[in-house]
């Protein structure tokens, strides 16, 4: 029998690790030294980024994604999760 291994040796394997694209990185709030999603300071809902502002995920008629009626559901928020404008 031949002494050739069935798999290539580890020294000949090229690893395909690509660096993260900085275009796809999202700003995160920092809490206790750890990155975390941006959440609303008033009600705790997770916010999604739209341009420079952050909004509640899928707001429907003044309600958040859970269906709760919150005053800031349609308002733009800053990176800290505070509403910067309240919709009327």
Low-confidence stretches: none
End-to-end gap? 81 Å
Percent in strands: 15-25%
The SSE order reads: EEEE
Rg over C-alpha atoms, rounded to the nearest angstrom: 23 Å
Give the averaged pLDDT, no decimals: 72
Order of strands across the main sheet: 1-2
Counted by DSSP, the helix tally is 0
Task: Explain what you see.
The chain is mainly beta. It has no helices and four strands. The protein has a domain at 30-88. It is elongated. The termini are far apart. The mean pLDDT is 72.
In short:
The chain has 88 residues and is mainly β.
Topology readout:
Elements (H helix, E strand, L loop, with lengths): L28 E3 L2 E3 L10 E4 L2 E4 L32
Antiparallel strand pairs: 1-2, 3-4
Relevant terms:
88 residues; mainly beta; two-stranded antiparallel ribbon; 0% helix; elongated
């Amino acid at each position: 029998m031949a002494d050739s291994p069935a798999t290539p040796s580890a020294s000949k394997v090229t690893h395909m690790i690509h660096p993260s694209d900085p275009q796809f990185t999202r700003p995160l709030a920092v809490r206790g030294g750890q990155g975390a999603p941006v959440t609303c300071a008033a009600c705790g809902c997770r916010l999604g980024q739209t341009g420079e502002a952050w909004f509640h995920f899928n707001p429907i008629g003044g309600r958040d994604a859970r269906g709760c009626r919150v005053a800031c559901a349609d308002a733009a928020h800053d990176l800290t999760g505070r509403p910067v404008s309240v919709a009327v």
